[in-house]
From TrEMBL:
HAMAP family hit by this protein: Nudix_RppH
Gene3D superfamilies: Nucleoside Triphosphate Pyrophosphohydrolase
Organism in which the protein naturally occurs: Polynucleobacter brandtiae
One of the GO biological process terms: mRNA catabolic process
GO CC, any one term: cytoplasm
Record's function text: Accelerates the degradation of transcripts by removing pyrophosphate from the 5'-end of triphosphorylated RNA, leading to a more labile monophosphorylated state that can stimulate subsequent ribonuclease cleavage.
UniProt cross-references to NCBIfam families, sorted A to Z: PRK00714.1-2, PRK00714.1-4, PRK00714.1-5
Protein name per UniProt: RNA pyrophosphohydrolase
Gene: rppH
Family membership noted in the UniProt record: Belongs to the Nudix hydrolase family. RppH subfamily.
Pfam families, per database record: NUDIX
Known EC number: 3.6.1.-
Co-factor requirement: a divalent metal cation; Mn(2+); Mg(2+)
Motif Nudix box: chain residues: 38-59
Length: 198
């Protein structure tokens, strides 16, 4: 399913643990690492596609995660022509298909690490995984996806930073975590209100 501009609708998933580290999966039989992602099927909403891909690629069910936020708009990347030539034999496919347009979701794992099952589907995407810092090393991402990864994490970081929910953080900015904010709020005397200043 392609849009008029030749982009395939897709979802990307940034999964957090309690330390705000992100799930980083190693592609089967490759030395490349990435976030879970996958196409939106006909009739699916982005959220429905996200839950399906999460189960297929990571083995997690809706009860294992909490949605924290998502990107407002589609983020696009183009697939290099040489890669398209290898993927598609027909000229028509190469002309029509340009790349992916993605809605990215930020999720919190409320289950346990042992709930992750990379063999949940018949065709696993990953053969290994680990937790890494939120601001991933961009040079570890395949070059044509780096821009989208940077945009997605910068936009989603606002959900983890107090006082700047509606703006993008510059790449690598310190995350002034809501988690700390809520902990501070719980310890406030009842006759005072917590400040929202950074």
């Amino acid at each position: 399913m392609l849009d008029r501009e030749g982009y395939r609708p897709n979802v990307g998933i940034v999964l957090l643990n309690d330390l705000n580290e992100v799930f980083w999966g190693k592609r089967v039989g490759q030395h490349s690492w990435q976030f879970p992602q996958g196409g939106i099927q006909h009739g699916e909403s982005p959220e429905q596609a996200m839950y399906r891909e999460l189960q297929e690629e990571v083995g997690l069910l809706p009860e294992h995660v909490q949605i924290i936020g998502r990107t407002k708009d589609w983020l696009r990347y183009e697939v290099p022509e040489e890669l398209l030539r290898r993927q598609h034999a027909s000229r028509a496919h190469r002309v029509n298909y340009r790349g992916q347009k993605q809605i990215w979701f930020l999720l919190r794992l409320v289950g346990q690490d042992h709930d992750v099952d990379l063999n949940a589907s018949e065709h696993p995407e990953f053969d290994s995984w680990r937790w890494v810092p939120f601001w991933i090393q961009l040079d570890s991402v395949i070059d044509f996806k780096r821009g989208v990864y940077q945009l997605a994490l910068s936009e989603l970081a606002r959900y983890l930073s107090k006082g700047i929910r509606m703006q993008q953080l510059a790449w690598g900015s310190p995350l002034d975590l809501f988690q700390s904010f809520y902990a501070d709020e719980a310890n406030q005397p009842k006759d005072t209100k917590p400040t929202d200043k950074p």
